[in-house]
Amino acid sequence: MTGFADIPPTTLADVLDRSRVMDIGIRPLWTPVPRVAGPAFTVRCPPGDNLMLHAAIYRAEPGSVVVVESGDLDHALAGGNVCAVAHRRGIAAFVLDGLIRDLGEVRELGFPVFARGVIPIPGTKSRLGAHGEPVRCGGVTVGPGDIVVADEEGVVVVPAARHDEVRTAARARLAKEEAETLDDWERAHRARIEKTLSEQTALGGTASTA
Ligand SMILES: O=C([O-])CC(=O)C(=O)O
Ligand SMILES: [Mg+2]
């Protein structure tokens, strides 16, 4: 249990900066995907090869999110069988800066995969890379033990050293939002928007409003 599963990536993005949110190319490959949250098991594969990911499914702890740096959009990092074994070993999800194949099998399994897409060509399985080192995935540097929270909104990475602080700030924000009615929100929002609009207009802004 990470204590992050009930915190949406949107709330985490409100309390973290842009550098902790993966780029929009890393998407759930089937929908609706459940939210996943777990510590990262990091993997680096050389372009075109998937040996280190295929080994990682026998090394990552149950509940972990396997995060892969690859830098290749011509070969699949994994397919239906790799995902099925990962799933039954309790791995929570794959987050891949790359591609998979056998998407129909993966969707049928219900194994969450966040990646750049699908290609039917398998990668080779012959080259060493790394496990348990910082990797780059979706433009974010992910270290082992960072918490990865992902759903249809995107993928957010909470640095290991900031778990408690970020969890507390996110929970406070959620509690505040839950206590606020839509009427409260609209009143405060409208006042803020109208105030900024008139300030900017007074400063010589060019917006024309009816
Ligand atoms: O052979 C591969 O690289 C991946 C694959 O198709 C599978 O896991 O089913
Ligand atoms: Mg296959």
Automatic annotation (TrEMBL):
<feature type="binding site">
    <location>
        <position position="102"/>
    </location>
    <ligand>
        <name>Mg(2+)</name>
    </ligand>
</feature>
<keyword id="KW-0460">Magnesium</keyword>
<comment type="function">
    <text>Catalyzes the aldol cleavage of 4-hydroxy-4-methyl-2-oxoglutarate (HMG) into 2 molecules of pyruvate. Also contains a secondary oxaloacetate (OAA) decarboxylase activity due to the common pyruvate enolate transition state formed following C-C bond cleavage in the retro-aldol and decarboxylation reactions.</text>
</comment>
<dbReference type="GO" id="GO:0046872">
    <property type="term" value="F:metal ion binding"/>
</dbReference>
<protein>
    <recommendedName>
        <fullName>Putative 4-hydroxy-4-methyl-2-oxoglutarate aldolase</fullName>
        <ecNumber>4.1.1.112</ecNumber>
        <ecNumber>4.1.3.17</ecNumber>
    </recommendedName>
</protein>
<comment type="subunit">
    <text>Homotrimer.</text>
</comment>
<dbReference type="Pfam" id="PF03737">
    <property type="entry name" value="RraA-like"/>
</dbReference>
<dbReference type="GO" id="GO:0047443">
    <property type="term" value="F:4-hydroxy-4-methyl-2-oxoglutarate aldolase activity"/>
</dbReference>
<keyword id="KW-0479">Metal-binding</keyword>
<comment type="similarity">
    <text>Belongs to the class II aldolase/RraA-like family.</text>
</comment>
<feature type="binding site">
    <location>
        <position position="101"/>
    </location>
    <ligand>
        <name>substrate</name>
    </ligand>
</feature>
<dbReference type="InterPro" id="IPR036704">
    <property type="entry name" value="RraA/RraA-like_sf"/>
</dbReference>
<dbReference type="InterPro" id="IPR005493">
    <property type="entry name" value="RraA/RraA-like"/>
</dbReference>
<dbReference type="GO" id="GO:0008948">
    <property type="term" value="F:oxaloacetate decarboxylase activity"/>
</dbReference>
<feature type="binding site">
    <location>
        <begin position="79"/>
        <end position="82"/>
    </location>
    <ligand>
        <name>substrate</name>
    </ligand>
</feature>
